[in-house]
Design goal:
Length: 180
């Protein structure tokens, strides 16, 4: 009987731990599949030439560098602030970059695009904005941003992703753990 109870205890611990691990992944929060940090078969000098006819896939590092460069350039020409428009509140924002989520870079196969999430603070306040950036390969190499959208304000999501499509939170009918 004691052995049976120990087995049940171990199973209960495994089940609880697996729920914690799965909840930490924030299902539905970001589109696409994770971008690769390295690409087997590609060399740094000749990306994509290992397999003729295939396009080179950008690495997560290239995407992060591209988005940081984009934010820096836009910020420099806007007096040190990144401008954004909050359509929900009908107001323009001047934002300061806090960080680019380097662990949340994704590839969206449907659009042949890349995705990264960032954190900003509004100038003169502690209001936090999570801004999502969509990027495509640029003709000269690297990436170019083709879309930005406020994903969260002060941690409250405005939309989620379902099958790489944006779904407003109000109509998403998400489980509570998907709101984080």
């Amino acid at each position: 009987m004691r052995r049976f109870m120990n087995i049940l205890l171990v199973l209960a611990i495994v089940v609880c731990f697996s729920r914690v691990v799965l909840a930490a992944e924030h299902p539905g929060e970001h589109p696409g599949s994770p971008a690769k940090s390295e690409h087997p078969g590609e060399s740094a000098e000749h990306p994509g030439t290992e397999h003729p006819g295939e396009e080179a896939v950008l690495s997560a590092d290239q995407i992060i560098k591209g988005i940081k460069s984009y934010i820096q350039k836009v910020t420099e020409v806007n007096e040190g602030y990144f401008p954004a428009y909050d359509a929900k509140e009908s107001k323009g924002l001047g934002l300061k970059l806090i960080k680019v989520h380097e662990d949340r870079v994704s590839y969206i196969k449907k659009e042949d695009a890349y995705f990264a999430c960032t954190d900003f603070k509004e100038a003169g306040s502690n209001t936090a904005y999570d801004i999502d950036f969509w990027m495509k390969k640029a003709k000269g190499g690297g990436v170019e941003v083709y879309r930005t959208k406020i994903h969260k304000k002060d941690g409250n999501p405005r939309f989620t992703y379902r099958d790489d499509e944006i779904v407003p939170v109000e109509s998403a009918h998400m489980a509570p753990e998907e709101h984080t």
